[in-house]
Structures are given as C-alpha cells and as structure tokens.
TrEMBL record:
Official protein name in the record: DUF2878 domain-containing protein
Domain of life per record: Bacteria
Alphabetic keyword roster: Membrane, Transmembrane, Transmembrane helix
Membrane spanning residue stretches: 12-34, 46-69, 75-97, 109-127, 139-161
InterPro entries: DUF2878
Length: 178
C-alpha cells in the first residue's frame, strides 16, 4: 500500500508541475513534506531528496544552458539556476520514489538503465506536448540525448541511494549488501 501511495503522490506532483508549473509549487512542496513525515527514516530520505534533487537540477540546468530545453515563462530561480522552480520540485518528487515505488529497480541496474532510457525521455516529451517546455533541437535529437542521459542517470541514482543508505539508514532497499 505504501508503494501505491508513493507512486500516486509522485503522479500528483508530476501532473501539477507540468500542467500548472509555478502556480502549484507550494502544493508539490506540501506533498513532499507529507512524504517525509510518513517516512521512518527521515534523515536518509531527506539526504536522498537533497542529493538527487541537486543532481537533477544540475543536469536540467546544463541541458537548458546547452539549448536543449527552453521554458516559455521566465521563472528561473532568482537568476541562480536557469530552470523553473516547478522543475526542481519535480526532481525532488522523483527522488522521493527511489527508495519506495521504484525500489524494485534498486538491485536491477541494467533494468534501471533500460527503464531510465525509455521513461526519462517519455516524461520530457509528455511535458513538451503539454506545453511545459520547448525543445531547442529536433525531437529525435532530444530523445536520443535524454535516453543516453537517463540510461546512466537512473542506475547511478540507485548507486547513490545505496551509498547514502550505508551511511544514514538502518532500513535498506538493497538486500544483497556487499
């Protein structure tokens, strides 16, 4: 049941951020706070959200600066990062799935790479089709680039979670600790 609640929570955040963008960031953040309140391992979960959220912000900032993403509204966060706050919130929402609804991929890094290489680009294309982002290059180029990035990014996120759990958590998503 917890997995379903986590997955539904992420889907709510995804749809709110894509459809309403900065208008509903506060609701997305409240959902993330609620998530943290329901988790027994607050420390590890918080560090996971911060680490993956930061990495995702860097990746999408680099893609934006490289002209891959173009945002219709000028909502870069205070001139500090070139991506809108709603996209950063979406990254934190994604991070909240890694130890929960997506944990089944945690020990299957090849499958995580395949899933990331397909699911990552599909998510961005859906966001583009719904008007949240524009692509600065042709669709095939953007999809190929995102597939390569996400095929690496998702497995690496699970490797990072493993390291963070080793340091901050008594509850592990990885069963075969080496």
């Amino acid at each position: 049941m917890k997995v379903v609640v986590n997955l539904v929570g992420f889907q709510i955040i995804w749809w709110l951020m894509i459809l309403y963008q900065d208008q509903y960031v506060s609701i997305g953040l409240l959902l993330l706070i609620g998530h943290l309140m329901l988790i027994k391992e607050h420390r590890c979960e918080s560090v996971t959200l911060l680490a993956v959220g930061f990495i995702g912000t860097l990746v999408d900032s680099a893609l934006t600066l490289g002209g891959v993403f173009e945002f219709t509204q000028n909502s870069a966060v205070g001139g500090i990062v070139p991506i809108p706050l709603w996209l950063i919130t979406l990254w934190f929402g994604f991070a909240a799935t890694l130890r929960h609804s997506m944990s089944y991929l945690s020990e299957r890094l090849l499958l995580a790479g395949i899933f990331g290489g397909i699911g990552g680009p599909l998510s961005y294309v859906a966001g583009e089709r719904l008007g949240a982002v524009n692509f600065g290059f042709s669709l095939p180029v953007v999809v190929a680039l995102l597939a390569a990035i996400w095929a690496l990014l998702l497995p690496l996120a699970f490797v990072l979670v493993r390291r963070l759990e080793g340091r901050f958590s008594s509850v592990k998503i990885f069963h075969n600790e080496a």
